[in-house]
Amino acid sequence: MTPPQIDLRSDTVTRPTPAMRRAMADAEVGDDVLDGDPTVRRLEARVAEMLGKEAALFFPSGTMANQTAVWVHTTPGTEVLLDANAHIIHWEMAGAAALAGVQVRPVPPGEGHSVATAADLERTLRPASPHAPVATLICVENTHNGAGGKVSTFADLEAIRGVADAIELPVHMDGARLWNAHVATGTPLDEFGRTAHTVMLSFSKGLGCPVGAILVGDAPVIRRAHMIRKRLGGGMRQSGILAAAALYALDAHLARLADDHAHARALAAQLEGAGGARVVPPDTNIVMVDLPAGMTSSAVVAAAAEQGVRVSPWSATRIRAVTHLDVDAEAVEHAGRVVRALLEGAAR
Ligand SMILES: Cc1ncc(COP(=O)(O)O)c(C=O)c1O
Fold first, then answer.
1. Among the four 123, 169, 268, 274, which has the fewest Cβ within 10 Å?
2. What is the pLDDT of residue 48?
């Protein structure tokens, strides 16, 4: 018999709850490309207000919203500066180069921290030169996926915004999991919003929706984003069905992200030191585990899957486990026991 699956590969694996499905079924809809879907408009107005911005635009995915933001803020042949491990660099199919025609310039985090700071950014900026491309955009990511769901605080982001303002560059925030940063720190979303010109937030991760992301910013930027979304094929018709899931999730699933964070801390405590493993202490819902010497992520991932626990290989020697709506404390504790036993020897 196949054992029950505890899927910690990502917070994107959640399935819409019966109550969310009911909210979707009951949504009032219209043609959002022709003249606007009323439920989409409600969602856009609500999230713009939450982030303290003038306008918002609903997207099918975070990738499309990020790529639209890069396109809106830049011109071809210029460069975008962003943390060396940013999602936009590594996991968006080189969209910045292929779509906006820009070069990405990775900012390496300095000694002792895992996400590039304002000082790291300043160090990477070049003086104007007849040989070097001109920078047109700075991107930040909060929480930072590759750094293990790491939160950048308001002060961290304000410092980056200060560097950007001094050289008159816009800032885009990949805030796919900004909801988690908000719940983990208590920082109001509009405070985070003040540190960037545009912010992307995802509904299909911790909030548990099947589809959707949103881009917020001032009205002229969002008007240009609207044209680019259409060019990318992102105009959706009766998308109120999807926006209704997001509205429901803002009411029912936002505050509970604190549970996911508690589950991640418990899992980290369970795995820390197992067989010599080192765990990055989680700020939010992502647990990164550096494996004991001689162990490979492919072996651990395969052995865990055989026992019904799914985690992802992050590198050859690092695995990632993400807590979410569809796993409770008991499931996470069971998964932790399985992985701990493997780290202690069984997966070599
Ligand atoms: C930090 C971050 N940004 C952007 C995205 C892209 O979102 P989507 O999968 O909706 O395209 C992800 C997805 O995992 C992410 O983790």
1. 123
2. 99
